[in-house]
Every structure is written in C-alpha cells, then in structure tokens.
Amino acid sequence: MLPWLAERGTVSTREMAEHFGMSVPDLISDLTLASLCGVSQSPLDLIDLWVDEEAVHFGITKYFDKPLRLTPPEAFSLVVSVRAAALIEGDRSPLTRAVDKMAAVLGGDAFEGVVVEVEPPEGLDDLRIAASESAELELQYWSPSTGEVAPRMVAPIEVFAEGEHWYLRARDLAADGERTYRIDRIESWRATGRTVDVLAGARRPWFEGSEDARPVVLLVDSEWLWVLEKYPLVSLDDAGDGRRRVTVLVASDRWLDRVLVRLGSHATVESPADLIDRTARVASGLLALYERT
Amino acid sequence: MHQLERVTNLLTLLLTTRRHLSFDEIRHELRDQYPGNLAAARAAFERDKSILRDEGVPIDQVVLGGDRAGATGYRIVRSEYEVHEFGLDPDEAMAVRVAVGAIRMGTSWSQEALWKVDLESHLYDGGVVGVELPADERLPIIHGAVADCRPLSFRYHDRPRTLHPFGLLARQGWWYVVGHDVGVGDLRTYRVDRIQGGVAVGDAASFERPPGFDVRTAFPADPKLLPDSVDVGSDVAEVRVDPRDVGSVVRDHGADCVIRTDADGWAVARIPCSNVRAFMIWLFGFLDRAEVVGPPALREMVVDWLHAASRGVDS
Q1: pLDDT over 90 (residue B223)
Q2: What is the extent of the structural domain holding B126?
Q3: How many domains are there within chain B?
Q4: Mean pLDDT lowest among A86-95, B52-61, B118-127, B289-298
Q5: Nearest CA in chain B to A291
Q6: What pLDDT score does A258 carry?
Q7: ipTM
Q8: Are residues B254 and B183 in the same domain?
Q9: Which CATH number does the domain housing residue A150 bear?
C-alpha cells in the first residue's frame, strides 16, 4: 500500500479502502500501525504518514520506494490473465504490447510455457457489444430437455466461459429471473432495438437460490467419482463402505438421468425416496431402444 | 508490541542496512522489541523471518567472517526485493486491468499483482466477458518449474513421478502439465488437480524444452480420441441420432460426420470411440435420443452396461 500511497500523497480513506478491498476501520488500523514503524522509534526514522478523519497523508518516502516483487502466484496469475484475455478481447493490440513488455521482464519462458485454450464462440464481439449496451435480445434457444427451439426474450448481463462451454448470463424477461444460456445452444439471436437496464450482482454459484433445484444424495463407488467432477457438488463425504456420499442439486430430471446412466451400476440414489429406483428405470427404458432393433 | 509492527521494523532495518546484520545486531537495533530471554527472542526472530519469506521477501543469508565469524548475517538486497517495472503505457496498463478483470480464478493473486505493477490503477469491473479458470496452489510452483526448466517430483495414481515439465495447459476447465516423464522415458500428461499432495522442484536449467514444443498438440482435445485398453474392433462408432439432436452433433463433430439419414428422420453419424469410456459418457448424454449401431462389440458393451445398471450390479 505504501508505494501506492507515496505515488498520490493524499488520498481519501474511502477511496484507498475501496481500492485495496478492505474496510475503512481496518485500513486506518493498518496505517496507524505502519506510522509507528521504522528502523528506530525516532520520529525521523518512522514511516512518514498520518491519518485524519477522512484522508491519509504521506510525507517523505524512506523505505518503500517500490512494491515488493511479484510472488510466484501473482506472476503466474498475471501471465494466465494476459494470455487468456489476448484470445477474447476485442482490441488486442495494447495487450499484445503489454505481454511483450512483461515477457521481457519475467522471461519469455514464463509466457510460452503456459497455454490457456479459450475458443471464443462465433459472434462473441456482437454479444459483448449487446451486453455492454443493455440491448434487449430475442434468442432462439435449443432446449436439451425438449430438443425443441423456442424464443426467449432476455436482457444480457455478461458472457463467460467455464469448463467446456461459453454461456450468456441474462435476465429472462418472461420469467423475470436470472438465467444462464449455453451459447452453442443459441440457434440465432437478434436485438429488438429496445434497451433494458439490469441491476446484476456477481454471478452466483450454479443453482444457488434456485427454487427449481432439489438436493439428491448419491452413493458412488470411489473410483467412479470422476464422472461427477465437472459438476458443482453440495457435499462429499465418506459413506464408510468404500463408497462416497455425494449431494448434487438437480434442476432437471433429464440431467439427473444422464448422470445416473453414466454412473450405471457404480452408484445408487440414497434419497429422496421417489428416486431410489431411478437408475434401473432409466436403464430399462434405454434397453428398450436396443431390444427393438 | 504488535508482531506486525516488529516484523515491519525488521523489514525496514534489513532493507536499509548496507551490510549483513547478525541476530545479535538486529536484536540490538530493534531494542526492547524481542523478548529478553535469548531462546524466546531467537524463536520470535525465526517466526518473523518466516512471515517475511512467506510474503515473498527475499532475505539474503550468509555466514559471517572476521570478528563475527560463524554467525549468520541477514539483509535484504533492494534490487531483489523491489518489483521490476514493466513500463506499460496507459493503454497497455488498461488492457492488463481489463485482462485481470476478465480472467477469474477465484483467488486474489491477479489483483495483488496489479496493485504492485500498476500503481496508477483504479478498480476496473466494467467487463462483460469473462473466463472462469480453476486455481490450484500448486500451479505457481509448476509454472516456475516450466519457466526455469526445473524437474518436478510428485505422486500421481499412487506412484512417484519425476517430470521435466515442458508446458502448462488449461483446457475445458482443467489444468494439465505436460512433459518428459523420466521414469517412463516418454512424454506424459498429468492433470494438476489429480496430483496427490505437494510437488517438489529441482535445480534450474536441468533440461531443455524441445524446440517448437506445443503443449496443445501433446494430447487430443477430444477425450474420445484418447486411446484406452478396450478394443471394440474399430476406432469409429456409428450412432443413430434423434433429429432433434443432429444439430448439436454436427456442431461438435462437423457436418461430415453424418453418413445418412434414415426414413424415420434419425441420422447416422460416425463418432470417434478410441476411448470407449469417454465415448459412453458422450453417448449417454443423449439418453433415449441416440443409439449405437456398430461396431457390434461396442453395441454389446452398451447393452451390458444398461443391463447391469437396470439390475444394480457391476457390468
């Protein structure tokens, strides 16, 4: 904090606390402590700063001209950020120059040895513009549960990639709720010409707060847990018999059926009671497909 | 005295000294800040050093000579301590801020890096495009080993491995380290989150990365193409697909994968099945809207799997 403060001289406590992601009382406490530090307790040797009611004032720089060097996690994270962002940002020229300058300092191998595979979906830039302009969109969206394409009116919030897919987070105007759409399932979209202001917070974990999702407890053979590893788990415990007790949130019967048949005989549903024989029912239904041909 | 205050005083002392200081000299300079009891003072000093090193402060340590012969001396070399400036122009710095805002790893690492390298920075949270990547505390260590050509030692599938890491790859939500496995004598790929326990690193410049090595081509992106030990007589399956799902199959495998459309509207597609387990995971994603036609051994495996699942016994 001190080199940042030295660069500015005087800063409001509120601005500084916001910048460093801390509360004003915590900031004042840290800075007060810093003002008591130095090579000796002589006032001439103490870090030259003081805090009044609303601002922090920095005097003469004695010790910390520049920030501490990057730690390995910081260097790694910075490299990953610029490498990945270079694949998705609209105007890539300044970032490319920044990467060249950073590579000259951190070493080219620090950059060349890290690859982030991010394949932007077709039309990402158009969606980015639509989201940043709060444009109302009509999506033609393919639903995996019905296999049908149906229109959805949405107000886009952001576009993001997670795992294997890209998603559009948006407010569904008919349902009046936040929804997440897989971009490869959007058959087409158009801007209606209207704008919709959406007050959106940070993205919540999958299914958090969803009234449509219910918890399902599975007992899974330990060596088959990998089938579930790409899904968010509510809890994971040892069942005591070589199996693991896993709780997943299920918002779609079809999604649960897919998971159960993928696990096959290596998992059973423990609860709720109405789903205990679900795997057998789904598997029998699929067998019918094979027995008729 | 608050420990943080004492640690900060120690930091200022070691940063400003022009020669290495022994523990006795440090204790004298920071008078009354360490306990009077020598053993307690030594323990507190060790804890303070540990705090500084954990924060990334490089404390240089030497065995002293002359009238302090045998004692250990400490100092912080300012050029080693201070961050190297990248010299970013305003538009470049802004691009880095946008990048840090867009790539989300669930840690504060990037933000803390930005505080150090971009003193002009103001918060940037205006981005509408983001990429979520998993974080793992071993990744920075592996990254350092890749950059400095240091061997890595770790356990994987309950076996010790020694790897010359050539690259790190983030693909489909997972991190992989790819390199030459010294024990196997061949190129191997390890998923970082499946590494058991910590990773140990060896000396820098212990190996050379092969010229032109591309971590992206080290293993196929489609897991159905990865070879496994199950032989079903062919590396390509024929799968009947419900018309409602043909679009999705074509998007993933290209229009050429469809070899015919049956009278009932279902399409027959050719899908890689070199890795039978990955193939079945893919197939069961369609439930009753996809059916394996061939090869016969693969169809039989699918039927056996479903029989076992319907009875609740291992196939």
Answers
A1: no
A2: 90-132
A3: 4
A4: B118-127
A5: B303
A6: 94
A7: 0.80
A8: no
A9: 2.30.30
